[in-house]
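Technical annex, item 7. During the second reporting period the consortium partners agreed on a shared format for inverse folding records so that results from different sites could be compared directly. Each record opens with the tokenized structure and is followed by the designed sequence. A conforming record, contributed by the partner at site C, is shown below for reference.
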């Protein structure tokens, strides 16, 4: 999580310094990867809980 915060801060710096496209791409990729990790983790938790019920 700390690394993601640093990357988002870096992307905000890029946007502020005039490199809007690079900063936006970096921020978008970071947020997309965090969402992917969250969704796959929730899916694995649901499958694990389903297996424990049976």
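Designed sequence (site C submission):
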């Amino acid at each position: 999580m700390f690394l993601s915060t640093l990357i988002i801060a870096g992307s905000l710096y890029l946007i502020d310094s005039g490199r809007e496209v690079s900063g936006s791409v970096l921020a978008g990729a970071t947020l997309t990867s965090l969402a992917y990790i969250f969704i796959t983790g929730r899916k694995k938790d649901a499958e694990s809980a389903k297996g424990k019920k049976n």
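The mean pLDDT is 92. Helices lie at 2-16, 20-53. All partners now use this format for quarterly exchanges.
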